[in-house]
Write a structure and sequence with these properties.
The complex is a heterodimer of chains A (490) and B (457). In chain A, the strands form 3 sheets. Chain A has a 7-stranded mixed beta sheet with strand order 1-7-6-5-4-2-3, sandwiched between helices. In chain A, strands 10-12-11 form a 3-stranded antiparallel beta sheet, with helices on one face. Chain A has 490 residues and is α/β, with parallel strands linked by helices. Helix content of chain A is 34%, strand content 10%. Chain A has 14 helices and 12 strands. The radius of gyration of chain A is 25 Å and the shape is globular. The longest helix of chain A has 37 residues, at 326-362. In chain A, helix 9 links the parallel strand 5 (237-241) and strand 6. Chain B is of the alpha/beta class. Chain B has 3 domains: 9-59, no CATH class; 70-81 and 350-456, Aspartate Aminotransferase, domain 1 (Alpha-Beta Complex); 85-345, 3-Layer(aba) Sandwich (Aspartate Aminotransferase, domain 2). Helices cover 38% and strands 13% of the residues of chain B. Chain B starts with 8 loop residues before the first helix and ends with a helix. Classes of the chains: A alpha/beta (490), B alpha/beta (457).
Chain lengths: 490, 457
């Protein structure tokens, strides 16, 4: 593979990559000297346009991505990101729209947002939607702020939040950020949360249960209705992490399950590109008693036109600037419109079919810690490989040699050495077979040539990287070798 | 089959046989029937791709996009030219459709680009280290205050400049809602538009946690950061700066050089479209000694077994997936593709282009302000500014929407955020504004009624 240095290590003094218009004439006074930057931006690159393009294209070739290969990261729903969505999000009427233009000049944007709110309400069976959160974890934060506001309004915020042991790490972190103490509720031997355990943990100090359904084992919480009833019986609320919504569209609505508040991950279920980490979007839906606490500004219809309203005295406030990740919301709306109600339900059915197909092909060879029927993902472990001293990490690295990204590994924490596989509905049977064959072959290699697996990957740009060194002696940025290029610093 | 799934009926039949069930419905048999019975999604059937294009173009056509009226709005989102190369790189599926680089061996593109992003953020903000990005400038500001709380546990008073962008102030307040032990106090602004720090020395005590200032502030005015850091240092408190228009930092002394402990910025100006306010990207930098209290993802340099340089996510022991309820933040991603846009943009403009572009903005805005002044539209605040300034134009402010209908969005009527500034417009002029648009701005502000009439013809 072509090598490529840091952009800061390229270039030549005085070069410029993009011509800037000339500075207009005008007898304009300079900035006062005490405000002026005095390092002449030393350290910034001086590179040409092709040089820059080539730099980033080379970097791009070092990535595996969902468009170039199966990317079976469990709980991340790495489905196909339709190309047409990139095109429509770039329409000048969307991309060039300033967020503070008079509302009459933004009616198309506002109508699209209103339509997306309605569509998400229809999928979730909940009453009101807020599109502001920038990511799933941002939505969780909002959800817990709403829980808190709801209880404060009824006297006191309460103290605790119940979280099942299989939960995503953001759940406890989000609850803590809202001032709550976290109490873990264990799952049963089938990997499911028993309503009796929730009822036993419930009292008037519990503000909410945060639950993921289907859970991080890919299992539908079969006692969900009894669980939510037990929480409600003691005045608590139920927060559902919607990360796994791709498993239940058209199968079960959170609103019908007794959920009071949830977040959507538009970059998962509704197919906006993951972008190497973001931007995503994490809208929140609530049952009507929580609607008055939703962030401002809110969409409001005034006669024929839509506008923004700050008139919400009980609102938790604002989570970010402006209205949300609009560019992402456009893509998600495009995806939902392309599929329609029946298409979304079909996506769920085929996602579950694909995951169960992989489960059937791999079980026996890989250890399946929970035999409970699963939906859109399946969780195996490395137990059968341990006698060869081959572990989950090795399997993941070896998969890279076979041209696949790795599943989510060592999560959920309730499974030791977990391999969490989510193929999504957009993969063909042939691709699933190729992936399953690679997995089976790796299991065979673990027996016959374990060193090959343990030393993997062999075919990638770099071999296993020394993560301990990175953490012990952090090098977090490029620094100039040339003392002239020092940068401005305190 | 419809949508984006490739399954043929034969595929489905073969897969069901392999699983050992009769139908796809059987795979959902364990979901309570009471839920399944009510789960149909009440949305219309899907569209074909051509129909989808038409549908979305219909929404877009009802907005004033880049080719519509002359828009002199900044106030947290800034119009700048975007080099074509930026979007070409963002369209690369290898970047766009990857995720958080959990497997570094096949994510070196994303990781090296983030390492470069961190370097750009640290250089521009004038501090040692930066993270892999936050959601936007406002949430980065809130995270900075939460970080200050970890650096200085037990301190309770947060000072927010009233001249800090109101969205940023509101976001800080929201993030602090659940943590009942923090008290927020406001620093007023003076007649020059800068934060009034007279008396700050005596007002801050050992309870002070941090101060947050905009640089430039919401009025476009450049703050005297050094004057504030001295007062905060005297009581051991931190100074945080938040920059909505980071292009200013190509010209203006960096927050770090002025003594800020944490500096954040909204990166939208660097290669991201306005997109009705999002997505943006938060830049976040601080001193090396605080790095373990920094929120968010961080990429570090290391080597593989053969000694080849490579990059990994590092210092993860701060993070939610390891620390759970004891994490520094609940954030579990960065703003990857937006951070990439910033990285490509800053590479292209680089040391020479960025400085010149900042000069162009400075000159264009100051020239426009002078013409307005000459036309009887004075600036409200005499403080130094970059590419945004406040003018007193009560008639135009009153007829703001009318002027917009006639093709000129003459800044932002500040009374919506600051009732005490009624009759004021916050005007932003950048390299994107053509001379004839500035002419129309001057005409509109000098005599709004006449401008409206002549534009209506």
């Amino acid at each position: 593979m072509l090598d490529e240095p840091l952009i800061f290590e390229r270039g030549s003094r005085g070069r410029i990559g993009w011509p800037v218009p000339p500075v207009p004439d005008g007898a304009v006074p300079d900035l006062p000297p005490e405000l002026r930057r005095d390092d002449d931006l030393a350290g910034l690159p001086e590179v040409g346009e092709l040089e820059t393009l080539r730099h980033f294209l080379r970097l791009s070739q070092w990535n595996y991505s969902a468009a170039t290969t199966l990317y079976p990261l469990g709980s991340c729903t790495m489905k196909y990101n339709p190309v047409v969505n990139e095109e429509v999000a770039r329409l000048p009427g969307f991309a060039g729209l300033h967020p503070l233009v008079p509302e009459r000049l933004a009616q198309g944007a506002l109508e699209l947002l209103a339509a997306l709110e309605s569509a998400l309400a229809a999928v979730s069976g909940l009453d009101a939607v807020c599109l502001q959160p920038a990511a799933g974890a941002h939505g969780e934060l909002l959800g817990m702020l709403l829980v808190r506001a709801y209880h404060v309004d009824r006297g006191a915020p309460r103290r605790r939040v119940l979280i099942p042991s299989s939960a995503h790490g953001t759940n406890p972190a989000s609850a803590t950020l809202c001032g709550y103490e976290v109490r873990e509720v264990p799952a049963d031997a089938r990997g499911l949360l028993p309503a009796s355990a929730v009822a036993a943990a419930m009292d008037e100090s519990v503000a909410a249960l945060m639950i993921t359904n289907p859970n991080t084992l890919g299992l539908f919480e079969e006692e969900m209705e009894a669980i939510t009833a037990a929480v409600h019986a003691r005045g608590g609320l139920v927060y559902m992490d919607g990360a796994n919504l791709n498993a239940i569209m058209g199968v079960a609505k959170p609103g019908d399950m007794g959920v009071d508040v949830m977040q959507f991950n538009l970059h998962k279920t509704f197919s906006t590109p993951h972008g190497g980490g973001g931007p995503g979007a994490g809208p929140v839906a609530v049952r009507s008693p929580l609607a008055e606490y939703l962030p401002v500004p809110r969409l409001a219809r005034r006669g024929e036109t839509l506008g923004w309203s700050d008139d919400a005295p009980k609102s938790v406030g604002r989570l970010r600037s402006f209205y949300g990740n609009f560019g992402i919301l456009v893509r998600a709306y495009a995806y939902m419109s392309r599929l329609g109600g029946p298409g979304l339900a079909e996506a769920t059915r085929l996602a579950v079919l694909n995951a169960n197909y992989l489960r059937a092909r791999l079980r026996g060879t890989y250890y399946l810690p929970y035999d409970t029927p699963s939906l859109h993902e399946c969780v195996f472990s490395d137990r059968h490989l341990q006698e060869y001293d081959v572990h989950t990490l090795d399997v993941a690295k070896r998969l890279l040699d076979y041209g696949f990204y790795a599943p989510t590994i060592y999560f959920p924490l309730v499974v030791k050495g977990a391999l969490m596989i989510e193929p999504t509905e957009t993969e063909t049977r042939e691709t699933l077979d190729e992936f399953a064959n690679a997995m089976l072959r790796i299991a065979e290699e673990a027996r016959t040539e374990p060193a090959t697996v343990r030393d993997a990957p062999h075919n990638t740009r770099v071999a296993r990287l020394d993560e301990t060194r990175a953490a012990r002696r952090p090098v977090l940025r490029w620094r100039p070798a040339d003392p002239e290029k020092t940068g401005e610093s305190a | 089959m419809s949508g984006y799934s490739p399954h043929t009926p034969e595929d489905v039949a073969a897969m069901l046989a392999a699983i050992g069930v009769e139908s796809i419905d059987d795979l959902f048999a364990h979901v309570p029937a009471s839920l399944r019975a009510r789960a149909a999604i009440d949305l219309p059937p899907g569209l074909t791709e051509p129909e989808l294009r038409r549908h979305l173009a219909g929404f877009a056509a009802r907005n004033a996009g880049a080719l519509g009226p002359a828009v002199f709005l900044g106030a947290g989102a800034y119009p700048h030219w975007i080099p074509a190369v930026v979007d070409q790189v963002l369209l690369r599926s290898e970047f766009a459709t990857a995720y958080t680089p959990y497997q570094p061996e096949v994510s070196q593109g994303t990781l090296q680009a983030i390492f470069e992003f961190q370097t750009f953020a640290a250089l521009l903000l004038g501090l040692d280290v930066a993270n892999a990005s936050m959601y936007d400038g406002a949430s980065a500001t809130a995270e900075a205050v939460l970080m200050a709380r970890r650096v200085l546990p037990g301190r309770r008073t947060v000072w927010l400049a009233r001249a800090l962008h109101p969205h940023y102030r509101a976001t800080v307040k929201t993030y602090l809602r659940g943590l009942g032990d923090v008290q927020i106090r406001e620093l007023p602004f003076g007649p020059d538009g800068r934060t009034d720090v007279t008396g700050l020395d005596s007002a801050v005590g050992p309870d002070a946690l941090c101060v947050v200032l905009g640089q430039p502030n919401v009025f476009g005015v450049l703050e005297d950061i050094g004057g504030v850091t001295a007062a905060m240092r005297a009581v051991g408190a931190l100074t945080i700066t938040a920059t909505t228009e980071p292009l200013a930092l190509a010209l203006v002394r960096s927050p770090g050089a002025c003594g800020a402990d944490i500096a954040v910025a909204e990166g939208q100006s660097f290669g991201l479209p306005l997109a009705y306010g999002g997505p943006g990207v938060g830049l976040f930098a601080t001193h090396e000694r605080h790095v373990r209290n920094m929120p968010g993802r961080i990429v570090g340099e290391t080597a593989d077994a053969r000694g080849r340089r490579g990059y990994v996510l590092t210092l993860a022991t701060r993070e939610q997936h390891i620390r759970r309820e004891r994490a520094t933040s609940n954030i579990c991603t960065n703003q990857g593709l937006c951070a990439l846009a910033v990285t490509v943009y800053l590479s292209l403009l680089g040391r020479n282009g960025l400085r010149r572009l900042a000069d162009v903005n400075y000159q264009a805005a100051h020239a426009a302000a002078r013409r307005l002044e000459a036309a009887g539209v004075p600036r409200v605040f005499p403080g130094p500014f970059f590419n945004e300034f406040v003018v007193h134009a009560p008639d135009a402010a009153a007829d703001w929407e009318g002027l917009a209908e006639d093709g000129i969005v003459a800044g932002f009527p500040l009374a919506r955020w600051y009732p005490e500034l009624s009759g004021s417009l916050l005007v932003c002029v950048t390299e994107t504004h053509a001379p004839d648009q500035v002419d129309r701005l001057v005409t509109a502000l000098a005599a709004p009624g006449r401008a409206a009439r002549s534009a209506r013809g």
